[in-house]
Amino acid sequence: QVQLVESGGGLVQAGGSLRLSCAASGRTFVGYTMGWFRRAPGKEREFVAAISWSYGTTNYADSVKGRFTISRDSAKSTVFLQMNSLKPEDTAVYYCAARHTRYDSWGQGTQVTVSS
Description:
The protein has strands at about 5, 10-15, 20-25, 35-40, 45-50, 60, 70-75, 80-85, 90-100, 105, 110-115. The strands form two sheets. Strands 2, 4, 5, 6, 9, 10 and 11 form a seven-stranded mixed beta sheet that branches. It is mainly beta.
């Protein structure tokens, strides 16, 4: 069974940086896509970024392009989300997810709060 555990959230001032981590376990993730999503208060969950575990190819939501970077450490079975130039509108609970055919494994989330 896939387990995803996020960490690294916290409170940061606008313009600051945070790095989120997602420790993945329970299977080999070759052929999987790992994604980060977020849900802000009162809003729907939205896609943030994704990375192919096997090939390292990435894609991003337009709202975070140029500011966020997704990466993975296959040896440590961990996915990262480096977030720079944070804005108050980035405030949300951030979730890590795994997709083979669909995103069906999710972490518990980590809170990111950006103060203005």
